[in-house]
Amino acid sequence: MNPNALSDWQTWAAITAVVVTMVLFIRGARKKKKSGGCDSCGPVGCGSDPE
Amino acid sequence: MEDSTDLVALAGNPNSGKTTLFNALTGSAAKVGNYAGVTVDIKRGETRTPHGAVLEIIDLPGTYSLEGGSPDQQIAREVLSGKHDRVPRPSLVICVLDASNLERHLQLALEVIELEIPIVIALNMVDLAEKTGIRLDPVKLAEELGVPVVPMQADKGKGIVELKQAMRHPFPAAPDEIGWEKGDAESRRAFGLSTSDLSARRPTAHTSTLSDKLDRVLLHPVWGWFFFIGIFFALFWSIFSWAGIPMGWIESAQEFLIGKVEGLMSEGDFRDLITQGILGGVGAVVIFLPQILMLFFFIGLLESSGYMSRAAFLMDGFMAKVGLSGKAFLPLLSSFACAIPGVMATRTIDSAKERLVTIFVAPWMSCSARLPVYLLLVPMLLGGREGGAKQALFFLGIYVLGTLTAFAVARILRGRLGPDEVESHFMLELPPYRLPQWNYIFRHVLDRGWAFLRKAGTTILGIMILLWAATTYPKLDSEDPGEVLSHTIVGRISDTIEPLVKPMGFDGRTGTAILTSFAAREVFVGSMAQLFQIEESDDEDETRGRIRDRLAAETWADGKPMFTMPAVLALLIFYIYALQCLPTSAVVAREAGSWKWAVGQFVFMTVFAAVAALLVYQVGTFFSS
């Protein structure tokens, strides 16, 4: 059997989670590029609003 | 731009208590420090007068004068004169003056009065002034200036109601006449001195305050350094020693959750994603939350008590030797928490060249994102568990190394950029020692802790999910875990980059973990947890989350240990020097006004880190073999 076959619900769920994460990352990066923001700075953020 | 009817600006010298007053008026928790330069941007908030009117409050950057050329002075000047492109001219200015330093703080108030804008003087920290024997006469001050004066203690909330009364409509008109020649700095200075003599009489005999006595020791050329090193050593020792218990709780919670998921779900990809990717990867980062909280607590304590200004004073002579003024020290100090506010704090520096150099070296001050990586690697070097004076000393050494390298590079860069066009002046204020403002410290610590968790739940979670997928797919029907890993995306990347990173003592998986941490440094710990778990997945009894044990047992194909002392040291050196933070690069590009600086800095720091790691590993291996 092909080990990469989408044979059970767990594989489907895992692949869906990965795809959703990728989409969110790409959307987040686009949004950040537009606003010039720095939401994810450091582990802590600096508390300053992006200009 | 049209005048706003309800915009109130807070202006004042650095360390006049402006941000404390802003917080007291608006109920926000903007960062407060007992040292200059905390506010480098404009903060906004709202307050209500006793009559119910809503006023918008803006907190301008602290400045000694409106006439200087640094970006923070420029912002204050533009806003107050109505020339800022995004902020309308305020209807009222609250000028915050430190009652203990009236003669100097008055100069800014006089400059604001010259702008013919309604003004209320908030005579702050009257308690501290009176303690030093100064006899204040706010009524006389109001008479001399022709504007309302409200004595207050913003940190204790005293005088806030009276200040709000003074802010009611109609706002007090700007004085018709002024007692000095408008635009004449000398006349303004003379008027300020005579006014402060009349309204804040100093005792004839100088009485030595507690702050004076403490400063005799803490600023002593020898004892001062002794305490400086002692204080920071104690800080790291406490972080190591006290965080062990809450870390154990987080680890137990992580293990409990993994056990629960494994009990509830049958074997499969989704279960692996949750247990190995999410709980294993994110948990490996979250476990360092107690240390992050403690670091910010101690930084808050040192800032709030007034010791940070003393640290800046001690470092000033050192800064001059590398061609930077004391003004560069505070941005560099801020960078120990996070390089982003550090880079932004360079706005207080007048000289454009000095500012660029400071921006360039700021990321070498070890920020808190590096903390989880150091906490993973340092105990491996010292062959023991977490805690102990040895590790605290080693930690102090890491921070000193980053700082010294930053200074050395600053010196070289400063020499290359040539002399300044304008002369830079640095005035360091040594505020009296105060009891820490616990309320603000705890709010600040909670804010930072929450931001860390938010990041763990978003960016780090995302990277961990993607990394799990990259270490799982495409699958291979084989019993050999090494063969299975080589077949995956990560396995292929690892094989490709291994020849590049092997001279530094790293295998392909460590190289991949480094690659993933270019998005955020803390990711390295979670990535290592995932990447080195795979081959051990058959060993169910092994303690989860203790990736350090696992790394210590790793070997190369020939059976030689992988994480030898030179290899761990090289890894540590790489993380001390590499710039792995995209948001920092974005802020550097904005503050330096060019992406060239940001790209140049990134390339330089990464190459520097790689070469340093290579040297450390090769030399270390040569001597240890």
Topology:
The complex is a heterodimer of chains A (51) and B (625).
Chain A: H1 9-35
Chain B: E1 7-12, H1 18-26, E2 43-48, E3 54-59, H2 71-80, E4 92-98, H3 102-114, E5 119-124, H4 126-131, E6 135-136, H5 138-145, E7 149-151, H6 160-166, H7 185-199, E8 200-201, H8 210-218, H9 223-242, H10 244-264, H11 269-286, H12 289-305, H13 307-321, H14 329-334, H15 339-344, H16 352-361, H17 371-381, H18 389-417, H19 438-472, H20 481-487, H21 489-501, H22 508-516, H23 523-531, H24 547-553, H25 565-577, H26 582-592, H27 595-624
Parallel strand pairs in B: 1-3, 1-4, 4-5, 5-7
Antiparallel strand pairs in B: 2-3, 6-8
Helix pairs in contact in B: 3-7, 5-7, 9-12, 9-18, 10-11, 11-19, 11-23, 12-19, 16-18, 17-25, 19-23, 20-21, 21-22, 22-23, 25-27, 26-27
Q: What would your notes on this structure say?
A:
Chain A is mainly α and 51 residues long. Chain A contains 1 helix and no strands. Chain A has one helix at 9-35. Chain B is built from 27 helices and 8 strands. A 6-stranded mixed beta sheet of chain B has the order 2-3-1-4-5-7, with helices on both faces. A two-stranded antiparallel sheet of chain B has the order 6-8. In chain B, strand 4, helix 3 (102-114) and strand 5 (119-124) form a beta-alpha-beta unit. In chain B, 48% of the residues are buried. Classes of the chains: A mainly alpha (51), B alpha/beta (625). The interface between A and B is large, with 29 and 50 residues.
